Amino acid sequence: MGRSREFDEAAVLTGAMHIFRKQGYQAASIRDLEEATGLKGGSIYHAFGDKAGLFDAAFGHYNRTVLEGRIERFAPPGSGLRGLRELFLSLLHEPDDASLGCLITNMAVEFGGGVNPHPRVEAALGLLRTTFRLRLGEPPTFARDADGAKADRTAIRLLAFYQGHLVLIRGGEGKAALRLAIEDEFNQLETLL
């Protein structure tokens, strides 16, 4: 019978998640991860196998708590274009006004360029694209578009817009200017209804 974990897994994964967001996968050292999680290297390896195992668990934690949590809070089913607007605006309000960036965006850049995208990145981008597409399909948005092609194209455009905002936030772009860009985008989308 295996020994039960003697640490708060959510706290450990949150600490690791923040290090990976801030430094990236390659630059995050085991010492950095020890400091962020409160675990010693041996405990990290015992609990997660290796750095890659901890990264995978932290990325899964990010997708569940940050991405899915943000979608549930700001753009739940039935919220349509209004929910999407609120989801985008929520990007401007990180806890403690931090600019760690998005783990999905950061890892898409770090692991990008290969034939096979990282599965967690691919899943997260897919969730965003699907969420955008579904909310655009909720009345009175693009429901009139029988084949959904317009909503599909708009969902891809919004995915690029969303990821671009995250890059700009990480780069220190002024949030007032980003807020205006978001408002302009959604005001234009509303005129298409």
UniProtKB/TrEMBL annotation:
Keywords: DNA-binding, Transcription, Transcription regulation. Pfam families: TetR_N. Residues 29-48 bind DNA. Gene3D superfamilies: Homeodomain-like, Tetracycline Repressor, domain 2. SUPFAM superfamilies: Homeodomain-like (SSF46689), Tetracyclin repressor-like, C-terminal domain (SSF48498). Residues 6-66 form the HTH tetR-type domain. It comes from Rhizobium hidalgonense. Signal peptide: none annotated. PANTHER family: HTH-TYPE TRANSCRIPTIONAL REGULATOR YJDC, TRANSCRIPTIONAL REGULATORY PROTEIN. It comes from the Bacteria. This is TetR family transcriptional regulator. PROSITE patterns: HTH_TETR_2.
